Amino acid sequence: MIKISGLIKRFEDTEALTSLTMKVNKGSIYGLLGSNGAGKTTLLKTLAGIYQEDEGEVQISEEPVFENESLKQRLIMVPDTLYFFPGFTVEEMADFYRKIYHRWTEERYRQLESVFGISRQQKIQKLSKGMQRQVAFWLSLSVMPDIMILDEPLDGLDSVMRQKVKNLLVQDVAEREMTIIISSHNLREMEDFCDHVGILHQGKLLLEKDLDELKKDIHKIQIAFKETPPEEMFQKMNILHTEKRGSVHLMIIRGVKEKLIEEFKAFQPVIVDILPLTLEEIFIYEMGDHAYEVDQVIFA
Ligand SMILES: Nc1ncnc2c1ncn2[C@@H]1O[C@H](COP(=O)(O)OP(=O)(O)OP(=O)(O)O)[C@@H](O)[C@H]1O
């Protein structure tokens, strides 16, 4: 379990993280979304123990992360800007990882060699940017981490490789209960991958959601009545958004689907359609006052 409470991180006169609190469960894939400068990298680096918090607490398994050598054996960060020693081959870099990380697993390293199809003798800096990213995943997964902290890791990978990497990560989550915290600008990219999403804005979490719960409880309903039901019926429902096109009401409603349909049926509607709702729509309707910021994150 990862627990962050009241985290403040400052850089001279900038407060990059402002009293931030969040929790990530073991075996979860947590997507951290936010526009440029929201504080994603700062949060991830603090979580990885690269930055020290100015105030508040950052704990993994109830231990503070900063300067915690044994905890750092169990976590690995793939940063947005990768670093490899100049002139090193994949094998030489792997040797460095072997010496540092006690949980390095040779079998995994060999198995992933065939997945990525890159030669171990290849000089890393001569590889393309996307291929260097693949090497970063290859080495990081060979460490068998409990926690992977990924800063916009899919940028620069082609769509086939994106899917391949996502599959590898999900496999480790399923088999070993690895926990992933992954930052992105793109909600669409995270939708099918994460089970939790947090939206960071100006150093604060605006919203934190379990995606399954979120999708379960919110519906887009298109409905038309022969006779308009009394206003009180709509008033007692948790309607987030409503529009009327001729005699058709289009509503975004929170609640249990079957119960909502039941309530409407009492008024003999002539049409009742439950339409699929995208995560983008859910976030926008959910956010109310912060819709603008969410809009920026989603469409950035
Ligand atoms: N090393 C630093 N020195 C000074 N200010 C910094 C430093 N790192 C980050 N900041 C500031 O902290 C704030 C958050 O930056 P951060 O890099 O964490 O955002 P981000 O969400 O990762 O952005 P992006 O999506 O553009 O990568 C910004 O205002 C940035 O200017």
From TrEMBL:
Domain of life: Bacteria
Keywords of the record: ATP-binding, Nucleotide-binding, Transport
InterPro entries registered for this protein in UniProt: AAA+_ATPase (IPR003593), ABC_transporter-like_ATP-bd (IPR003439), ABC_Transporter_VariousFunc (IPR051782), P-loop_NTPase (IPR027417)
Classification via Pfam families: ABC_tran
Residue ranges of every copy of the ABC transporter domain listed in the record: 2-227
Transmembrane segments: none
GO MF entries: ATP binding; ATP hydrolysis activity
Protein name: ABC-2 type transport system ATP-binding protein
